[in-house]
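step=encode ok
step=design start
structure_in=
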């Protein structure tokens, strides 16, 4: 089997295990920390604030990630970054407000080098003919983390209105073990030569310091291009909706007391449904990549946009405005709130997210292959800025205001992505036409 494809599979499994740990924790962190505070009033850590710190430092360190990877290479960067995820999980065994926020900041820095390294390594293992397939396969494996982690949480949180210390310790211990398994997978990745500098117009650097400086400068130059500025609007939207489905929607269900006698276990089922939607979308665009890419990336992104708009409308009718904050007896338009609608919306959130992210990965790994490290760093920078902003306002804005923000940025982001995709198609047609004319000229000269 092709070593590059084997690397894609190992990469997917490594991220699946690491993010089985982290995404599960992100989904339950707000609820978990509330239960810790109930047992120990001196602990005042807040889940939304912790996630905001993670994504704020994530955004900041994305500017330095290309330089770090220039020193270490993407494989080492991903292993180092994955260890920060593991440390973050360990701190939940020793509840401390200051330690929570320090670990959150450290995780943000680790996430920057992890995701930039992942994007660079995926581009190294791909070409224009298989980048969509590889992106879909990686995304499907990654999002299996939503399924397995939340299935475990569902069984552990069954019939529990309060998450006791014993249950918390068991859940955290298992998540730590799974994260360590992911680190081991990433450590087994095989070396693949860099393909991003073959056609670059920049002078080849001679030292690691030159590599770091050039990587930083080229990322800044790329950010100011028309295509990247337009794509940034799509990146922003993925950050807003990422924070919503990974850290706000689950607790909003768990805090809505009228949705079920045991709403906390419904929160776990919602996480599973998000994972099923993500895996289904990633698998669809991976296995059927040759068919779906025939029509371009824009139809898939447009489909994801409409899927999300339907989900937001149903959530608006189903959950109360006060749901993100704490336990509430409030209702929205449906009385009582429907469990099946909450789970359907979770599936739609995951499916729409897969539509956006698989096509963004495909574009960055294909259209921007000459500077894939910088392109993926800018993607994660912009996405994490939006996620940090979202988690900050999640503590203050009601559910309906948050949904309104998602609708506005979703509309703008989808439109901007399509503009860039149409421009890329136009350039590809022009290049193909030029090649055909040159081939015809050479043939006529031969005759």
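sequence_out=
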């Amino acid at each position: 089997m092709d070593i590059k494809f084997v690397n894609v599979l190992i990469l997917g499994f490594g991220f699946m295990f690491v993010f089985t740990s982290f995404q599960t924790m992100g989904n339950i962190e707000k609820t978990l920390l509330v239960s810790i505070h109930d047992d120990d009033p001196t602990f005042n850590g807040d889940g939304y604030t912790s996630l905001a710190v993670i994504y704020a430092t994530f955004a900041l360190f994305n500017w330095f990630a290309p330089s770090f990877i220039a020193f270490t290479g993407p494989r080492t960067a991903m292993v180092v970054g994955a260890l920060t995820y593991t440390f973050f999980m360990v701190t939940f065994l020793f509840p401390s407000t200051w330690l929570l926020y320090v670990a959150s900041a450290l995780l943000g820095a680790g996430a920057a080098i992890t995701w930039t390294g992942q994007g660079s390594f995926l581009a190294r293992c791909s070409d224009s003919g298989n980048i969509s397939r590889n992106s879909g396969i990686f995304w499907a494996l990654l999002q299996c983390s939503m399924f397995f982690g939340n299935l475990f949480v569902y069984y552990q949180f069954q019939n529990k209105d309060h998450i006791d210390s014993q249950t918390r310790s068991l859940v955290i211990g298992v998540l730590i073990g799974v994260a360590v398994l992911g680190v081991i997978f990433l450590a087994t990745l095989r070396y693949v030569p860099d393909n991003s500098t073959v056609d670059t117009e920049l002078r080849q650097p001679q030292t690691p310091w030159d590599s770091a400086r050039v990587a930083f400068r080229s990322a800044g130059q790329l950010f100011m291009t028309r295509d990247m500025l337009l794509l940034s609007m799509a990146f922003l939207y993925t950050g807003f909706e990422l924070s919503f489905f990974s850290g706000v929607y689950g607790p909003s269900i768990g805090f809505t007391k009228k949705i079920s006698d045991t709403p906390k276990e419904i929160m776990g089922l919602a996480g599973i449904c998000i994972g099923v939607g993500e895996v289904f979308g990633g698998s669809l665009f991976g296995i059927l990549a040759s068919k779906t890419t025939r029509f371009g990336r824009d139809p898939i992104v447009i489909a994801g946009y409409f899927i999300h708009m339907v989900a937001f409308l149903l959530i608006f009718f189903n959950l109360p405005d006060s749901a993100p904050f704490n336990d509430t007896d409030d209702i929205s338009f449906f009385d009582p709130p429907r469990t099946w609608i909450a789970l359907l919306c979770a599936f739609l959130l995951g499916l729409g997210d897969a539509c956006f992210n698989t096509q963004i990965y495909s574009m960055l790994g294909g259209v921007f292959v000459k500077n894939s490290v910088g392109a993926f760093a800018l993607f994660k920078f912009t996405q994490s800025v939006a996620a940090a902003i979202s988690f900050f306002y999640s503590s203050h804005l009601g559910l309906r205001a948050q949904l309104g923000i998602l609708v506005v940025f979703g509309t703008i982001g989808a439109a901007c992505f399509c503009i860039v995709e149409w421009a890329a198609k136009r350039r590809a047609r022009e290049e193909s036409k030029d090649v055909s004319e040159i081939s015809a000229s050479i043939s006529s000269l031969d005759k």
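step=design ok
step=annotate ok -> Residues 197-206 have pLDDT under 50 and may be disordered.
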